[in-house]
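Severity: low
Component: inverse-folding endpoint
Summary: output formatting inconsistent between runs
Steps to reproduce: submit the following structure tokens with default settings.
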């Protein structure tokens, strides 16, 4: 049995527990491209008790990543400051500020007055589910337009609540992405620049950016700022044996390729 220290943030107090073998097998069967869905499933399995905001789909993407990393830190056989390629977990954890506002004001862009809200797990799952729905968007561009559609709110607007399994929210978000793509080029660029600038005001816990396949964690500033971005996939929470059990490789006896090898399996990966 592994001991997990209590994790306290401004919005919840969390006690984690070790995954069972069955839970690990279930998580390993989730397709790799559904990492946000896997993160929600992982957290629901791993939460023993939580006070405050209880649904991990309603946590910010930074809070979700922090909780996953807290699990990895407790289960690493070498050190809580686990290895990430050429770096360590402490190179990415940025507790200042620990908490950020729920939304900030951008101002008037393209004849509308805009606000920017935090990106939640449920929003990220919706963006993930919509991959391939718009032929003109893929990779980084899909995530950029998706995040803009989810986070940008016009003055007086009340968008539908994002839920982890919400078909209604998916329809809203897809429509919103199409609207953004229909903007005149100059208006879209002005909105995107303001979006990128305002995101800094929402920064907390970990500095997340958009990579080619979704969200990545950037190293914190100072001496660590020349390190690569990193991901913390759910599959790094259990052993490589589980991955091979669920997804056997073609060559009998061949070992899965580790992501920065660990004694019992895979660890967080360099996102480059």
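Observed output (run 2 of 3):
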């Amino acid at each position: 049995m592994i001991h997990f220290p209590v994790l306290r943030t401004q919005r919840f107090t969390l006690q984690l527990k070790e995954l069972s073998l069955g839970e690990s097998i279930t998580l390993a069967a989730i397709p790799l491209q559904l990492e946000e869905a896997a993160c929600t499933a992982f957290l629901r399995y791993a939460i023993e008790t939580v006070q405050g905001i209880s649904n991990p789909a309603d946590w910010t993407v930074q809070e979700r990543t922090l909780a996953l990393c807290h699990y990895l830190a407790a289960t690493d056989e070498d050190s809580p400051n686990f290895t990430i390629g050429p770096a360590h977990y402490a190179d990415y954890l940025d507790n200042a500020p620990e908490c950020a506002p729920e939304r900030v004001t951008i101002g008037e862009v393209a004849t509308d007055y805009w606000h920017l809200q935090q990106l939640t797990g449920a929003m990220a799952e919706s963006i993930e589910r919509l991959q391939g729905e718009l032929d003109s968007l893929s990779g980084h561009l899909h995530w950029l337009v998706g995040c803009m559609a989810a986070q940008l709110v016009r003055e007086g607007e009340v968008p539908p609540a994002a839920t982890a399994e919400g078909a209604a929210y998916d329809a809203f978000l897809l429509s919103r992405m199409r609207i953004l793509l229909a903007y005149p080029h100059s208006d879209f660029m002005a909105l995107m620049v303001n979006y990128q600038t305002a995101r800094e005001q929402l920064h907390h816990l970990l500095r997340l950016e958009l990579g080619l396949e979704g969200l990545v964690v950037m190293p914190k500033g100072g001496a660590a700022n020349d390190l690569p971005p990193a991901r913390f996939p759910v599959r790094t929470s259990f052993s490589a044996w589980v991955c091979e059990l669920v997804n056997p490789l073609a060559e009998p006896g061949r070992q899965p390729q580790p992501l920065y090898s660990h004694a019992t399996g895979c660890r967080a990966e360099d996102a480059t």
